[in-house]
Amino acid sequence: MNVDPSNALMRDAEAASAEGIPPKMVARSVNVHYGATHALKDVSLDIQGYEVTALIGPSGCGKSTVLRCFNRMNEMFENTQTSGQVTIDGMDIYARDIDVVALRARVGMVFQRPNPFPKSIFDNIAYGPRIHGLAETKEDLEQIVEASLQRAGLWDEVKDRLKQSGTALSDGQQQRLCIARAIAVQPEVILMDEPCSALDPIATGKIEELIEELRTGFTIVIVTHSMQQAARVSQRTAFISRGELGEYGPTVEMFTKPRHERTKDYIMGRYG
Ligand SMILES: Nc1ncnc2c1ncn2[C@@H]1O[C@H](COP(=O)(O)OP(=O)(O)OP(=O)(O)O)[C@@H](O)[C@H]1O
Ligand SMILES: [Mg+2]
Asked: Could you tell me the distance, in angstroms and rounded to a whole number, from the CA of residue 235 to the centre of ligand 1?
């Protein structure tokens, strides 16, 4: 994708026009402890719908932990405690009666390393719709698989080999397969934890283009170590520092006039 500043400014104007629209997801005073480690300290963050929000910050600062708060994935680790509130469309996702499986269908996730199931390309995509009962007939399922692969920009490359193993694809294709798998259950929000860090520049470019395209239908939160990537793909950026929200605002502002010294230092590569 090109880094066109006028484009970025236009996107920012769009982001500004989202002011006043209630955020899709809201985190309020969230604290996360892993045993004795106090990983997140009082983090409050609004995620605007149909935008890409980037989370940046030094290694170990808590980016993945913030991301996992939005679909309760931190609970998969033992000894984790989360307090505070996280909502989607105003609904408390940590409420006692929440069905976590259904929540994770609404708030999907793509990981750092492409992790297709050791199954066929078709079955990788069909898995979620099958368990969530999204297809009544075989034709429905085939249609969902095709539409998801189309949306992830992979259909033309795999349409003649849907029965082959997903693990036989290139790394970049595997990551697009994982994105197609996330899309197949019609999520509203997609969380991506450094989705390009295992990919070469060409495969990275394809994923970045895809992210830009996906935000027309989904809300995206992406963790990235690459400042350039945050600048290219996101409308808002949150800088996390030592478990706290250091700064949060429109991406263009964050990269041109950061408000805090610590953000400036990080952006200028002076630490992290
Ligand atoms: N499953 C876990 N069990 C125990 N401690 C954890 C766990 N996951 C993260 N932590 C700790 O919580 C803190 C935040 O980690 P987190 O993985 O969120 O950081 P990060 O910003 O994503 O780092 P990186 O850029 O290296 O991926 C770190 O001190 C880390 O050691
Ligand atoms: Mg991480």
From this structure: 25
Mutate to test the pocket of ligand 1, among 31, 33, 34, 197 (most ligand atoms within 8 A of CB): 34
Considering only CA atoms, which of 75, 64, 143 is closest in space to residue 103?
A: 75
| The CATH number of domain 5-116+189-267 is 2.60.40.10 | no
CA of 36 to the centre of ligand 1 (A): 13
Place of tokens 């500043």: 5
Q: Cα dist. 55→19, 192, 229 in Å?
A: 20, 10, 11
- From the CA of 45, how far away is ligand 1's center (Å)? 19
| Residue 244 CB neighbour total at 10 angstroms | 15
Tens of pLDDT along 109-148? 999 999 999 999 999 999 999 999 999 999 999 999 999 9
Q: Where are the domains of the chain?
A: 5-116+189-267
Mutate to test the pocket of ligand 1, among 32, 56, 61, 221 (most ligand atoms within 8 A of CB): 61
Q: What's the pLDDT tens digit per position in 163-179?
A: 999 999 999 999 999 99
pTM over cut 0.90: yes
For residue 19, the model assigns a pLDDT of 62
pLDDT at residue 1 tops 90: no
